[in-house]
Amino acid sequence: MNIVLAGGGTAGHIEPALNLADELRLRDPNIKITALGTVRGLEVDLVPARGYELELIPAVPLPRKLNGDLVTLPTRLRSAIKQTKDILARLEADVLVGFGGYVSIPAYLAARGGVPIVVHEANARAGLANRVGARFADAVAETVAGSLPRAQLIGIPLRKSIETFDRASLRKEARKTFGIDAEATCILVFGGSQGAQKLNDVIGECIQDGSLSKFNVIHSVGIKNDFPAESSNIYHPANFIDRMDLAYAASDFVIARSGAMTVAEVTAVGLPACFVPLPIGNGEQSMNAEPVVAAGGAIQVPDVELTANYLRDRILPLVSDPSTLVKMAQASKGLGHKNSASDLADLVLSVARKA
């Protein structure tokens, strides 16, 4: 069986695709899995690092404004569709699984009528690519109910280390890894693989003025960003955290953006959180966080309102109250999906076998 995955650009599109690939390969090592991507996306590094083949197609971003790119869009899109059709034919694809992003539009249009299509939507508000693909897909899966018509609620595929996460068994190793005392209260801060400058600035200010002196802070600042403060016995900065399962196990509270993968992982491991949605885009990050906030597992703060004063006055009192943390953690864990990779694999294989 030959399965082609389309979802390049950001880690939010690539990671669930690779998690599905891991599940499929675990079931049958003979399944051939190939990812589609572009030279401008993170998939150039992430896909080969996970051991999968990558085929490159032209990036066709859809212009948001009336400019010269809009004039050349039809030509660029036709070229990308043709190249993708050739790749699908050469690979003898049995099914295309799309996760949105620049790669998915030409992939969906190239596969239409010839290769069965499964669309997976990670966000509460679907992007344009998946709205297009869902119209003629053989099956549609979603993470948040109501994001796309006729979609099955499956959740977002997670890494095995998160699916099998056991805080009690990992806690001692996790605390030792980051150099955190067993009795300390720890806050985990991250803004995705690229980091979040706003979070970095606020945390840096609070570390330097002593506001966080009673806490340990694990801070993933982003691959290319500088540390906002010097590391110490309470502040543990890193450009990238490879073992997020250990970071989750070491922590008692999360401050993060609310991308779909972040929300899915935080709820799967059952951590209370303060979500700070990215202030650009179509508002999907805010919508991703809303079910967790409504259930009592998190608070949500608009990016513009997050300041050092807000952190000191509104967030740290929550983190300082053990009973509040326990209640929030229970609410968060109640929304977690740990079988999403398996459920999506079932759906993909079902569509492929029918064809």
Question: What features would you describe in this structure?
Answer:
Helix 7 crosses helix 9. The chain is of the alpha/beta class. It has 14 helices and 13 strands. A seven-stranded parallel sheet has the order 3-2-1-4-5-6-7, with helices on both faces. A six-stranded parallel sheet has the order 10-9-8-11-12-13, with helices on both faces. The protein has two domains: 174 residues, Rossmann fold (3-Layer(aba) Sandwich), CATH 3.40.50; 173 residues, 3-Layer(aba) Sandwich (Rossmann fold), CATH 3.40.50.2000.
Alpha-beta content class: alpha/beta
Domains counted in the coordinates: how many? 2
Largest sheet: 7 strands, parallel
**Beta-strand content estimate:** 15-25%
Number of helices: 14
Shape label: elongated
**Strand order in space, largest sheet:** 3-2-1-4-5-6-7
Corresponding CATH superfamily of the largest domain: Glycogen Phosphorylase B
Runs with pLDDT <50, length 5+? Answer: none
Instruction: Look at the structure and give the mean pLDDT.
Output: 93
CATH architecture of the largest domain: 3-Layer(aba) Sandwich
Would you tell me which CATH topology of the largest domain applies? Rossmann fold
Q: Which bin fits the share of residues in helices?
A: 40-55%
Series of secondary-structure elements, N-terminal to C-terminal: EHEHEHEHEHEEHHEHEEHEHEHEHHH
